[in-house]
Write a structure and sequence with these properties.
It is built from 13 helices and no strands. With 323 residues, it is an all-alpha fold. Helix 10 runs parallel beside helix 13 (295-317).
Length: 323
């Protein structure tokens, strides 16, 4: 059944799941995993739909589609965050690992021994990758092929560039120990440069956060309250038919409901929070998908600010109008 369900999945998303599972070291059959995800996601969304259908004035199929897409997106985001965490840990210890490998080679060890002895517990998840490279070299694989396989598993742009640099140096006849040491030095300098860039763009992050988390909810709260006021005011205006002929303007009833305005505000705030989180992730970390972890926090803050603003305005100005 799972294999049949997996055929419904788009090819692009399948490739994305394949890459994420490989990077996260999750050894499962891709088609079975995708089929299981579809089955569980559809069933869970259906159960929640029947529960929420009692309270929401929306077609059940719309609720089910939204919940299903939300569950699938959440799982994909979780895998992305798991992989990004692994990549971040590896990139952090990469210069130290390269430096240790270089020292081992200078001590007279063979490349496979140099890699195996560089697998220290303090390197975390990178220890397993180093061990795997050392074992592959031991059983006869070339150093170049083992490094390429490692970069494909990790799926990091920085690791890939480092590996290509090392391979090109080896092919051009360079000394491996010198290459590793120089690469470690350049990687450290690059990390320092990235830290300086992050500190210089902090003002942009603060501006985006303030605009999305505080500015937008306050404006939406004011506008939704203004619609309620205008509806009440216009509903109390009663112009006689004889006098209406001489008035150059026409006052008609507002057909937009308050519930529609509130729903539109919530949808707009959620969409803005998602996009701004991805933008912050791109500015701070260099990858838009790093902003996935900010999405729940941003949505929570914006919605709390929106309803708090509406409550405060209604409490302060509501006495002037009869709602």
């Amino acid at each position: 059944m799972y294999l049949l369900l997996s055929k419904l999945y788009p090819k692009g998303l399948k490739e994305g799941y394949k890459r994420l599972l490989k990077s996260a070291n999750i050894n499962v059959n891709l088609d079975r995993f995708i089929g299981f995800v579809l089955f569980v996601g559809a069933g869970l969304a259906l159960a929640i739909t029947f529960y929420l259908g009692k309270y929401l004035d929306m077609p059940l199929w719309v609720i089910w589609v939204l919940l299903f897409l939300g569950i699938e997106t959440t799982l994909y985001m979780w895998l992305n965050l798991k992989v990004n965490k692994k990549i971040k840990e590896i990139e952090k210890v990469l210069p130290d690992a390269l430096q240790l490998m270089s020292s081992n080679l200078r001590a007279g060890l063979t490349p496979d021994k140099a890699f195996l002895l560089a697998a220290r517990p303090e390197f975390g998840v990178f220890k397993d990758e180093i061990n795997r490279v050392g074992r592959e070299i031991t059983v006869g694989k070339t150093l170049e092929m083992s490094l390429i396989n490692m970069s494909q598993r990790i799926n990091s742009e920085k690791i890939e560039k480092v590996v290509l640099l090392i391979i090109s140096g080896i092919k051009s006849g360079g000394e491996l120990a010198d290459l590793l040491e120089e690469t470690a030095r350049n990687t450290r300098n690059q990390d320092l440069m990235e830290q300086k860039i992050k500190s210089s763009v902090l003002s942009y992050v603060i501006f985006i956060f303030a605009a999305v988390a505080f500015g937008a909810p306050i404006l939406f709260g004011l506008s939704s309250f203004l619609v309620e006021v205008l509806k009440q005011v216009f509903s109390q205006i009663d112009i006689p038919a004889s006098a209406a002929v001489n008035i150059p303007i026409k006052i008609s009833k507002i057909s937009i409901s308050t519930d529609f305005i509130v729903t539109y505000s919530i949808v707009s705030l959620v969409a803005t929070s998602i996009l701004s989180s991805l933008l912050i992730g791109g500015i701070v970390k260099g990858r838009g998908k790093e902003g996935f972890k900010y999405i729940p926090i941003m949505i929570l803050i914006t919605l709390v600010m929106f309803f708090t603003c509406r409550s405060l305005i209604s409490g302060l100005l509501g006495s002037l109008f009869v709602f």
